[in-house]
# Entry
Amino acid sequence: MYVLITANRNYSSWSLRPWVLMSALEIEFEDRIEPFTKPVNYDAFRSFSPTGQVPALLHEGRTLHDSLGITLYLADRHAGVWPADPDARAWAQCAVAEMHSGFSALRNDCTMNVGVRVTPKPMSDALRSNVTRIRELFEEGLAKFGGPWLAGADFSAADAFFAPVAFRIRTYGLDVGAGQAWVDHMLSHPAMAEWERQALVEEWREESHEVELIAAGVITADYRTA
# Structure
């Protein structure tokens, strides 16, 4: 049995990637949450991850760290992580790599918080460039492979890696053109709905994440119940 260690549902975008991937592909795992309780959780998280970060996957005496490392490990053991079609597979792998290493302005300026809606502050040039590129990626994938998922008819790692972006797009009302069709489809997936359900009722609030949210713009709605 896999043990997947993740953090707060409201904040932890990196945790969401393997969680939604494994849930959508029906890969069974034990779900273990280690919440962010302070701005720096490195020492506490080092007890289960060499990087002091989430997510981490425990399996057969191994500790797999980093969302991409976990994904590659799962791809060696389970069908469906990557598309079967060679063209779609190559595109998906490039999209995943681009998401994993890039889009820093989106990460910094539009912090993930599932339970709120925000009117964002004016975009920086870097953020505008990130949103434009995301729109291009979404529209390209849908047009090239026919949807409804980014790389074709079936959910894949490409969708999992952009899952946190779907929440960010909704939270901040970002315009991704025809890519909104994928956003709506992604947000309606049962695994995403379950992640959101947990986010809205979780009791943890971490001050530094809330400060980042306030800096991002004006909060217009907060659906968190705890």
About this structure: Residues 125-145 form the longest helix (21 residues).
